[in-house]
Each structure stands twice: as structure tokens, then as C-alpha cells.
Design a protein that fits this description.
Layout: E1 3-13, H1 19-29, E2 33-38, E3 44-51, H2 52-62, E4 70-78, E5 93-95
Length: 99
């Protein structure tokens, strides 16, 4: 099993619709490590770490999001595991403050 880390930016109507909570709950249900946060530009930023196939499935789900959202774009980049250090202490997946 290969572990990957992916940095994801989601644009559209993704704030004020429960998108961050949906990401956190979905990622946790998949057993992924990482975090999610709103950005001041109206986008949502996430970091997913785990098995390559599981991370890919999570990213595919981000293209749809919760029912109240409208996703216009999902941009995915490879990332380094050191970004996981932004998580809360003793948390596998965190919702971080807006940046």
C-alpha cells in the first residue's frame, strides 16, 4: 500500500454550506489523515494523506461535496507530509481556522 499526501483547493459555493464539516466527516470515515479550512478568498483548502486509492476517492467526492454546495473547480497538487503538522494535537483530521 502506497501512502500519498495531496493538497486540494476547492472553489465554488463551498463556504457557508457545511463543506468543511462534510470534508472532515468523510475523510475520517475513510481513515484519512489531514485537515481542512476556509480561505478568505471563498475557497476551501484541504490536505489528505493515506492510501493512494482512498485519497483519490476522497478527492473525487470533493468534486460534488454536500448537497448545498456547488463545486466549480478542484485543484490537486502533491504535498509533503510535514504539512500534517498543522493539525490539532492528537487529531487525525482537523478543521483549521480560516486563513
Amino acid at each position: 500500500m502506497s501512502t500519498v499526501v495531496r493538497h486540494v483547493m476547492i472553489r465554488g459555493r463551498v463556504q457557508g454550506v457545511g463543506y468543511r464539516v462534510w470534508v472532515a466527516q468523510t475523510a475520517e470515515s475513510y481513515g484519512l489523515d489531514g485537515w481542512v479550512r476556509n480561505r478568505r478568498d471563498g475557497s476551501v483548502e484541504a490536505l489528505f494523506a493515506g492510501a493512494e486509492a482512498t485519497v483519490a476517492e476522497m478527492i473525487a467526492k470533493c468534486h460534488h461535496g454536500p448537497s448545498a454546495s456547488r463545486v466549480d473547480a478542484v485543484v490537486v497538487d502533491e504535498a509533503e507530509a510535514d504539512l500534517l503538522a498543522q493539525r490539532g494535537a492528537d487529531e487525525r483530521f482537523s478543521i483549521l481556522p480560516t486563513v
